[in-house]
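Quiz preparation item.
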C-alpha cells in the first residue's frame, strides 16, 4: 500500500471542493439547520417541562452525535459518487491504485469533511443553546469513535451497492441513516421498541452509544462491556463492508461493468 496514492484521492476531493462552493456549503448548512431546529425544540420543552430535567444534553446531544454519524457515512459515499458522476473509474483502476488505497482515500476524505461538520455543530450547540460536553465526560471520545467506525462501514457498503447497480441506485444511499434511526434508539430507550425491533437494535453499534449517553446523563454510568461490544460490531462491519466492496469490484472488472459504467448501466 502506497500512501501517496491514497493522498492523491484525498487531494482530488480537495480540488473539487476548492473549485465549487456548492460542494462546500452542504458540509455546514444542513448540520446548522438541524442544530438550530432541535435547539429551539429543546428550549421549548425545557420551558414547559419540570425544571429539574434538562432536554438539551438528551435531545440536542443525540442530534449532534447522529448528525456526526450521518456526515461520516455521506462523506465516504459522496467522495465515491464524485467518481460515479464523472465516469472516472476507468482512469482510477487503470492505474496501479489498489482497492485498499482507494478506500483509504475515501475514509480520509470523510474524516476531513465530517470533522469540519462536527466543529460547526459543536460551536453552534455550545454558543447558542448552552450544550456542555462536560456532562458526557471522557466517554464522548469512544462514543464518537464508534459512530465514526460504523459510519465508515455503511459508507463503504453503500458505495459497493452503487458500484454494482449503477449511478441510478444512488438514491439508496441517502435514506440509510433515516431508516436506521428508529432501530438505533436515538431519542428514546431501546426498551421502548417492540421485541422484534429490539433484536435488530442489538446489532447496531449506535444503539449502545445512545443508551450509554442517556445512562450517563441520568447518573447511572455506562457499562464498559456494552461499549466494547459496540466497538467490536463496528470493526466487524468495516471488515465485512470492505470485503463486500472488493467482491463487487472484482465482479465489475470480470464482467466489464467498469467499461460500461454509465447512467444507463443499471441492471
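Solution:
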Amino acid at each position: 500500500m502506497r500512501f501517496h496514492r491514497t493522498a492523491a484521492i484525498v487531494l482530488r476531493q480537495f480540488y473539487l471542493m476548492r473549485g465549487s462552493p456548492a460542494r462546500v456549503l452542504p458540509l455546514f448548512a444542513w448540520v446548522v439547520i438541524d442544530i438550530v431546529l432541535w435547539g429551539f425544540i429543546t428550549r421549548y420543552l425545557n420551558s414547559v417541562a419540570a425544571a429539574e430535567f434538562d432536554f438539551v444534553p438528551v435531545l440536542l446531544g443525540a442530534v449532534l452525535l447522529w448528525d456526526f454519524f450521518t456526515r461520516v457515512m455521506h462523506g465516504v459515499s459522496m467522495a465515491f459518487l464524485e467518481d460515479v458522476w464523472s465516469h472516472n473509474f476507468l482512469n482510477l483502476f487503470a492505474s496501479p491504485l489498489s482497492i485498499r488505497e482507494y478506500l483509504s482515500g475515501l475514509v480520509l476524505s470523510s474524516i476531513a469533511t465530517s470533522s469540519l461538520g462536527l466543529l460547526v455543530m459543536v460551536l453552534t450547540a455550545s454558543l447558542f443553546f448552552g450544550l456542555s460536553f462536560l456532562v458526557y465526560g471522557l466517554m464522548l471520545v469512544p462514543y464518537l469513535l464508534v459512530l465514526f467506525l460504523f459510519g465508515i462501514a455503511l459508507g463503504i457498503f453503500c458505495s459497493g451497492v452503487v458500484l454494482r447497480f449503477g449511478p441510478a441506485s444512488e438514491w439508496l444511499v441517502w435514506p440509510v441513516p433515516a431508516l436506521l434511526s428508529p432501530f438505533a434508539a436515538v431519542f428514546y430507550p431501546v426498551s421502548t421498541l417492540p421485541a422484534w425491533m429490539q433484536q435488530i437494535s442489538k446489532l447496531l453499534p449506535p444503539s449502545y452509544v445512545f443508551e450509554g449517553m442517556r445512562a450517563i446523563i441520568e447518573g447511572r454510568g455506562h457499562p464498559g462491556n456494552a461499549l466494547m461490544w459496540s466497538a467490536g460490531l463496528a470493526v466487524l462491519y468495516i471488515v465485512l463492508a470492505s470485503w463486500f466492496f472488493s467482491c463487487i469490484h472484482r465482479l465489475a472488472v470480470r464482467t466489464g461493468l467498469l467499461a460500461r459504467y454509465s447512467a444507463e448501466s443499471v441492471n
